[in-house]
Amino acid sequence: MGLEEKVRALLEEAELKKRKAVPASLQSVTKERVRLILTVIDRCTDDMVDAVFALLDDQQSSWFPKADPSLKFSDGASIGHIGAHIGILQRGNTRKLDREGRDYWIKPLCEVGVVQRVILFSDTGCFLPGHPIAKSPNSAYRLDKEFVELLKTPRDKLDQKVQLWIDDDAVRKRLKLQAIMAVQASRQIDRKHATLISTCIDIYVKSFLPGFEVLYVDDRDGDRITEDARAKLKKAGLVLVSGDAMPDILLWKTGTAFFWVVEAVTSDGEVDLSKVTLVNRFLRRTLPDAKVGFTTAYRHWRDVARRQGKHKNLAPNTYLWVQEDPSKHFQIVTFDDHNHSHLTFC
């Protein structure tokens, strides 16, 4: 049985047992945490996040036939293993990630010390450091132990720990600066995002969310939270701290614990499950009874097709609004064999 067939069998087995092939967290680390830290060093693509998450997998036994039986996937995995984990187990596709893409989702992580190169020594079934034999089928990768510990850091100590980790490596320092400058440059050059945010406030909010007040808008360079916004957040009972979700638009139904988030998408940043989790955590830290609705806004239907055709990442029970089709919005619901109460006939 080939690698892809073996991994598809694992996926089918999980589906038969009505469980996820890959849990929401591995070694107590979520993809949300991985994405947060990789963003700081400008090494955050979906493929990189999923590669790191794959290498956290200590649930699967090693996929190397000659590995010691006690070893796990996280102890060392080949490019093919990682690609199959991402493409088939994590994403539910029929094929693994393209092997040639390793230059885009493994090599950059090796350069900053997130991932280490190792090789399986067949005589012992254990992994040794480095790739001493070119193009060996036993060449593999694993996460750096220090980086794994960083991923597990408690939230209140994370900022300090990440900075120490960055300061320990000149390349990571350069990449952090590069990430900051990239954000500033994109905000200066691409005003489409700010324009869509403005349109959402002027049209979508007024049409579909009457009674909601704008608390916060993220369309600025420099200091992203104005003093006026801080005052409004305080009035609503909220306090933003480092690491909190920074939605494009945060709305409040005055005098209630009901909020709404709008994400204006011109490149990426839809309301996905990670965004829902982050926003709820932020709101309920000070308002345990807070409730929140979500909308992802695009400029054109072609933007919807371009993004969702590839990522399919809109969170269930959120809404979709398209600027060029402004008179309606759409609720995202998932099929549920046991509950059809959400269906509306007209």
Describe what you observe in this structure.
The chain is of the alpha+beta class and 346 residues long. Helices cover 41% and strands 16% of the residues. The chain has helices spanning 3-16, 31-40, 46-54, 79-90, 102-105, 107-111, 145-151, 155-167, 170-189, 192-208, 227-235, 273-286, 301-308; strands spanning 25-26, 29-30, 115-121, 126-129, 139-143, 212-217, 249-253, 258-265, 291-298, 319-322, 329-331. A hairpin with a 2-residue loop joins strand 1 (25-26) and strand 2 (29-30). The protein starts with a helix and ends in a 15-residue tail after the last strand.
What gyration radius follows from the Cα positions, in whole Å?
Answer: 22 Å
Count structural domains.
2
**N-to-C terminal Cα separation, in Å?**
50 Å
Number of strands: 11
Percent of residues in helices comes to 40-55%
Spatially, the strands of the biggest sheet line up as 6-7-8-9-10-11
Beta content comes to 15-25%
Structural class determined from secondary elements:
alpha+beta
Helical segment tally?
Answer: 13
**Unreliably modeled segments:** 342-346
Shape: globular
The CATH architecture category of the largest domain equals Orthogonal Bundle
CATH class of the largest domain: Mainly Alpha
Mean pLDDT over all positions: 86
What are the secondary-structure elements, in order, as H or E? HEEHHHHHEEEHHHHEHEEHEHEE
CATH topology of the largest domain: Arc Repressor Mutant, subunit A
Can you summarize the main beta sheet?
6 strands, mixed
